[in-house]
TrEMBL record:
Cited InterPro entries: TM_pro_TauE-like (IPR002781), TSUP/Inactive_protease-like (IPR051598)
Protein name in UniProt: Probable membrane transporter protein
The keyword RNA-binding appears for this protein: no
Entry annotated with the keyword Transmembrane: yes
Keywords: Cell membrane, Membrane, Transmembrane, Transmembrane helix
Subcellular location: Cell membrane; Membrane
Length: 263
């Protein structure tokens, strides 16, 4: 095992710790780690991220379920359109993106660059939701019609499919605002959606990519260890303060990715 692999596995532990401590943000660390430290192609990195985040989120779902913070009915209602969009995105949309998106003079925006820049934009939006520490608002108890949930699930699923993220930072506000679920239960419920979306999305990649299962399973097991440790530490560390600090870190990461890809 060389030093790069060791760094990668240490990174996997940190990914799990972040998920365990703040309940999200795993893919925000996983994709840049795989691309910039381990040298994976962005398409492969986003595929691996789906598997890692999906598997660790499954563990997180169980932890939240034991505390009574999971609404399975609502989670599954969002999951159906979402996993359709994620699977179709990974199976057909991502492989169908041309290798060169456009050229202006000597500048060429490649497929990999485009995915990473789009990922950075989503990271920036995620960081805003992490930094904002507003009070939970009063919401209308009447849930919205299912057709709206279906369209919202398709939209969020397509975005998360392209960037290889779990999408918890998108699903939590959707569940609060649209499904009328309290914040704490929305976080737990989002993990069901993230688990189903990520793992089904990854199935689309299995059909188009060669997977290094030894590395991927080792990375995932270490991440699961991290989420278990993080879940224990969360009792002693303020998740709200940590999430806000992580939000600022994500902004720095987003700027770095854009600079790295477009320089």
């Amino acid at each position: 095992m060389d030093s790069t692999q060791i760094i990668g596995y240490v990174g996997a532990l940190i990914v799990g710790l972040v998920l365990g401590l703040i309940g999200g943000g795993g893919s925000i660390l996983t994709v840049p780690l795989l691309v910039y430290l381990l040298g994976y192609n962005p398409v492969v990195a986003t595929a691996y991220s789906l598997f890692v985040v999906g598997t660790t989120s499954m563990v997180g779902t169980y932890q939240k379920f034991k505390k009574g913070l999971v609404d399975f009915k609502t989670g599954l209602a969002f999951s159906f359109p979402s996993f359709l969009a994620v699977y179709l995105s990974r199976r057909f949309l991502v492989p169908g993106i041309p290798e060169t998106l456009f050229s202006v003079g000597d500048f060429h925006l490649s497929k990999g660059m485009g995915i990473m820049v789009f990922f950075a934009i989503i990271m920036f939006l995620a960081s805003i939701s992490m930094i904002k520490n507003g009070k939970e608002k009063q919401i209308d108890p009447e849930p919205q019609p299912y057709y709206k949930t279906f369209l919202q699930g398709l939209t969020i699923g397509t975005i998360t499919g392209i960037i290889g993220a779990g999408g918890g930072f998108l699903y939590v506000p959707a569940l609060v605002i649209w499904a009328k679920i309290p914040m704490k239960k929305a976080v737990g419920t989002s993990l069901i959606i993230v688990t189903i979306n990520s793992l089904i999305g990854f199935l689309g990649d299995v059909q188009t990519l060669d997977i290094d299962w030894t590395f991927l399973l080792t990375f995932t097991v270490i991440s699961i260890l991290g989420i278990l440790i993080g879940g224990g530490l969360s009792k002693y560390i303020s998740g709200k303060k940590l999430k806000k600090s992580f939000g600022f870190f994500v902004i720095i990461m987003a700027v770095y990715i854009i600079f790295k890809e477009l320089k």
